Prior knowledge:
- The chain is 40% helix and 13% strand.
- By secondary structure, the protein is of the alpha/beta class.
Amino acid sequence: MNTQQEQTITLHRPRPIAVASICTTAKAEHWSVDAIEALFQLPFPELLFRAQTVHREHFNPTHVEFATLLSIKTGGCPEDCGYCPQAAQYNTGVEASKMMALDQVLFAAKRAQEAGATRFCMGAAWRTPKDRDIEKVAELVSAVKGLGLETCATLGMLNEGHAEQLRDAGLDYYNHNLDTAPDFYGDVITTRDYQDRLDTLARVRHAGVKVCSGGIVGMGESHRQRAGLIAELANLSPYPESVPINNLVRVEGTPMANAEPLDPFEFVRTIAVARITLPKARVRLSAGRQEMGDAIQALCFLAGANSIFYGDKLLTTGNPDTQADLDLLDRLGMQRGAPEMLT
Ligand code: SAM
Ligand code: DTB
Ligand code: SF4
């Protein structure tokens, strides 16, 4: 599509009356699990129409944010998250490594920026970072921020003062996922509880760092538990600015290696329900894209996803090639960029 064509397109945006009827107000509302389950049960075309209506109210639906991940400290994690290839107690073939040096991280960040990423997320396989880890990560954050990238970190549970230190270094977002519904959580992780996660999110919010929090589907949870995850996220006050929805990557050696794959349409529904209940959040189509195929990814964009992890690798598992992503957006007449509406 050339620039002239782009300028002549008028995006359809709904009139406020249509939006009021599907429960999107600027003020966050309380969502019951029943109401969210009812959204999941809508006929697919109805659900997608509602999600698209909300999406267009707040975002340019043709724009997708590109965020690149880098594992700055891989493997050897003491936690027992049943999905995770980096947990030390599972034999997944992931080697434990020390934290990467500043020059290596900067090199990766520059490469991501040249390839078109606007957000750079640094992940570490820690239960909780030590004070000296935070000092080192703060240096990385400030160097990456200096390149003009948005910064994000995911380092596990934060202690008092950690979020402030990261904020002062230039951290824009902190990622910490609720992962699943409270009543399924104990089947997935036993080494820390739901409240620990909520406490970390509260510390991040209190420090004024934007919250990135989402979860994983396809771990054997029930329909209601998928609704329960979305309810927890939507009822955070305020709700997260950024919401990664991961489809479980089934890794050999983890307890979830043989989990029953989720119906891909159920994944699309999860994206649509997240869009409706978290109207202004960037909803990220996250792990699992490599196994998903182009058509399901396109449906996810139609359901309101407006961000992806961009780069050949997630943390330890694969992700589509950057060229494949650029081609996909091109084939869909969509473009990379900040999705927010300029109004
Ligand atoms: N250790 C930190 C923590 O747990 O918060 C940060 C890194 S951890 C790998 C970040 C998130 O990646 C997890 O909360 C989980 O949602 C997601 N994740 C990990 N393994 C995954 C898998 N096999 N499939 C999908 N998502 C996964
Ligand atoms: C998120 O929700 N998903 C990303 C990011 N936040 C850190 C991680 C996905 C990891 C998938 C498994 C792996 O590559 O190790
Ligand atoms: Fe450790 Fe995070 Fe993996 Fe859990 S998800 S095992 S905390 S790296």
